């Protein structure tokens, strides 16, 4: 919720702050009840739930009920712990592991399975796939492209904004373009996605901001989730973890759909590199 706060109106922030402060109490409220408690409207409550990655308020209530049950059981709280300059390395490991687990859990819970299914279908039948990412997201873009290449698909990752746009304008119906941007505002990723969209390609946005500008040019939106960043733990760390889960889901989904061709392609790629492995590791 802290991550999404800059994207919220003041009334939406009131809803989010109330939910964060009292998950158990809010889980017991209807959409009307929460609207009355926060001095907002039912529409604002629903918009807040959707911005947080839930299909509707009912789904948010279920998540709150689960959080309340976890807190009541005495389990470790599902929050991100700050890492300070004085923390021993053992504490750093523990806090990072907790944060990574929570990021993965939140991402899985927020994923729209219908959008995921549609994206898998588009990728599995694509003539060509372009993936765009800048900075930390470029590493994730490269990972997705190389995974798809190894199962026989034509996929390329672009981190150079000029090359990304010049490649995007060559895409047509039957091609797929994937933009990866945590902020949803990265111009160097938005521009090629818009070009691909304008030329008829199926477009996908993987972003932590479902209301970000990038989604205006996306046929399918896959929302990521991140833990709260601190001075020593920038958002790029948790956003990368979240993005990697999403692309792994896409890869496995596509491999399942194309198994008859994917399996031999994967074997061929392994054999092509086998001579580069140490004999003791073969």
What is the fold's blueprint, element by element?
Elements: H1 10-21, H2 23-27, H3 31-38, H4 42-51, H5 57-72, H6 89-110, H7 113-124, E1 129-133, H8 136-150, E2 155-158, H9 161-168, E3 176-181, H10 187-198, E4 202-207, E5 220-223, H11 235-257, H12 259-273
Parallel strand pairs: 1-2, 1-3, 3-4, 4-5
Helix pairs in contact: 1-4, 3-4, 6-11, 7-11, 8-11, 9-10, 11-12
In brief:
This protein has helices at 10-21, 23-27, 31-38, 42-51, 57-72, 89-110, 113-124, 136-150, 161-168, 187-198, 235-257, 259-273; strands at 129-133, 155-158, 176-181, 202-207, 220-223. With 282 residues, it is an alpha/beta fold. Pfam families: HTH_6 (PF01418), SIS (PF01380).
Describe this structure in words.
The protein has 282 residues and is of the alpha/beta class. The protein folds into two domains: 1-78, Winged helix-like DNA-binding domain superfamily/Winged helix DNA-binding domain (Arc Repressor Mutant, subunit A); 113-271, Rossmann fold (3-Layer(aba) Sandwich), CATH 3.40.50.10490. It is built from twelve helices and five strands. The protein has helices spanning 10-21, 23-27, 31-38, 42-51, 57-72, 89-110, 113-124, 136-150, 161-168, 187-198, 235-257, 259-273, and strands at residues 129-133, 155-158, 176-181, 202-207, 220-223. The protein has a five-stranded parallel sheet, sandwiched between helices. Strand 3 (176-181), helix 10 (187-198) and strand 4 form a beta-alpha-beta unit. The longest helix has 23 residues, at 235-257. It is globular. The model is unreliable at 76-80 (pLDDT under 50).
